[in-house]
# Entry
Amino acid sequence: MKIRKTLLAAVLAMPALAMAATPVINVYKSAACGCCEAWVKHMRDNGFKVEAHNVANPSDMREKMGMPDRFGSCHTAVVDGYAIEGHVPAAEVKRLLASKPKAKGLAAPGMPLGSPGMEGPRKDAFDVLLVLPDGSSKIYQHYN
# Structure
């Protein structure tokens, strides 16, 4: 009976532990940006706790995090010391946080149609880039 109660308590505690382990994503965006709001919703729907900050110049955070302008998009997020630039899918952010590579972060440069927050009738192929400490990048994941 005692083992059963212990197991039940452990099972019930698992969701709380998982949520506690998920770091907060701070998103810096323009108040008027609808696709940014859609990306925030995508991240929340995928289990992230998101704090959205409406700022006059979202690119200021990109600069502060050392993310080169050539990877720029409409919003910059910061999670666990990494910059997430643009419409990066939640799956890639989760993979980044699990593997913890030496990097500035991830970027989906521009505003690729069909990426999270940019859904619509047209879907373009796009790359999520791992931006390395020296500012170079490599393809982290390709989406068709």
Q: What stands out?
A: The first strand starts at residue 24 and ends at 29. The first helix runs from residue 2 to 21.
